[in-house]
Design brief:
The protein is of the alpha/beta class. 30% of the residues lie in helices and 21% in strands.
Length: 419
């Protein structure tokens, strides 16, 4: 099996711990920038300029968003706080894609105020948007292909998902939007999450290209851009390989030449909204073993828990684990690696082969740079940990402090308990 090693040593982490106690997340700026540049290079042929709208939900931290803004990425937002976060790092107008569902009126108001591209999730939202905020000149709509396109384990079958218009609805929707004053139009879909098959994204492009042609033929509406969504996965397991962006790009380019150019839609801009593959491999959860337990199984108990990384407990997702300083030791022991929540699914790994480990050892949990800290919670009164950024110049800066007991109690009102 291929080795999956962190880009730092035990000594480097021990030095950080002198100032930043475990657990904490550590993000690698160099890797994030390099991935952003890879996207730009792979899709440099796209008419009007390719843009990836980084999925803010993956890693909602202003330092990360600022780095990605500097590299030419926009922000894919799905809530009011995410819109405000994008605004505060200087992203405005069509650098923001607002893709939400069951959307409150005030969130549409903010999105329109920012000049964000509003991506509607349902045909009934056309009238709702008009009543809430007024109808914009540029509008996008989310297509759900139903059984035409298979989903995957995380996002489920498209026909069972709560997202998007049916094909007849979306064709009708563009006609309605034009009557309400829309002059520019986008088309979007998102039907997979953490997908490693590169052909999946080429097939998605074909579906949207063909739908864009159909919309033009049936309504006269010319689609200005297609958003192919995100969902490009990362190799969580050592034996897996990353998606080849250049292969995906060439497949999409071939489909573009075959479908778009002969049907009067050239130039058609192409954008995406990937988050996981941009930051996921470049984030690590650092924790320390504080207990070892031997009953019916062997357990390593960490000072981190599911509140810090819920994916293994929620999805049964695999995250590779390195015992720092023992990278070359044989993996002769089998453990469940656990946290301290009063929930039996609070496990980072089950029956995982690792080097022999004991309390005091430092643990590195890989691929936590997306949907890690962002999915944190306070069940059992657990406090969310700090986030650190390892800059390209070698320095490490704290970009989010750890929560405190005072933070946990800040929203509670004890005044009514007096007397």
């Amino acid at each position: 099996m291929n080795k999956k090693l962190p880009p730092f040593t035990k000594e480097f982490i021990e030095d950080l711990i002198k100032k930043h106690p475990t657990p904490f997340y550590l993000y690698i700026e160099k890797g994030i920038r390099e991935k952003a540049r890879e996207f730009k290079q792979a899709f440099s042929w796209v008419p009007g300029g390719f843009k990836n709208f980084f999925a803010v939900k993956a890693l909602p931290n202003p330092y990360i968003l600022r780095i990605l803004k500097e590299e030419g990425m926009g922000a894919d937002c799905s809530s009011l706080p995410e819109l405000i976060l994008a605004e505060r790092v200087g992203l405005t107008g069509e650098e923001i894609m607002f893709t939400s569902n069951d959307t409150p009126a005030h969130e549409y108001v903010k999105a329109k105020e920012l000049g964000a591209i509003i991506n509607l999730d349902d045909i009934t939202h056309i009238d709702f948007l008009e009543r809430s905020a007024g109808f914009p000149e540029l509008i996008c709509m989310r297509y759900n292909p139903g059984p035409l396109k298979g989903g995957n384990a995380i996002i489920g079958k498209p026909e069972e998902a709560k997202y998007g218009f049916t094909r007849p609805q979306i064709i009708e929707g563009y006609g309605i939007a034009r009557k309400k004053g829309a002059k520019r139009f986008g088309l979007h879909t998102m039907v997979a999450s953490n997908e490693l098959n590169p052909d999946y994204f080429i097939e998605t492009a074909v579906i949207l290209f063909e739908l864009a042609v159909e919309i033009l033929q049936k309504t006269g509406v010319r689609i200005e851009f297609v958003n192919l969504g995100g969902g490009i996965g990362i190799p969580y397991r050592p034996e897996q390989k990353p998606v080849d962006l250049f292969y995906v790009s060439e497949g999409i380019r071939s489909a573009y030449d075959r479908i778009i150019k002969p049907n009067g839609l050239h130039p058609l801009r192409i954008v995406m909204e990937n988050g996981r593959c941009v930051t996921g491999p470049y984030g690590f959860l650092i924790s320390r073993i504080i207990h070892e337990k031997n009953t019916y199984k062997r357990y390593l108990g960490l000072d981190a828990c599911m509140a810090n990384l819920m994916r293994p407990g929620m999805y049964g997702a695999y995250h590779h684990i390195t015992v720092l300083g023992k990278e070359d030791w044989p993996e002769i022991a089998t453990y469940d690696v656990t946290g301290s929540l009063c929930e039996n699914n609070d496990k980072f790994a089950i029956d995982r082969k690792l080097p022999s480990a004991s309390p005091g050892d430092l643990i590195c949990i890989h691929d936590g740079g997306a949907h890690g800290h962002a999915m944190g919670f306070n069940y059992n009164g657990k406090l969310r940990c700090a986030e650190l950024l390892w800059r390209e110049d070698g320095s490490v800066v704290q970009i989010r402090r750890a929560e405190t007991i005072e933070d946990y109690f800040a929203t509670l009102d004890f005044s009514g308990l007096k007397g």
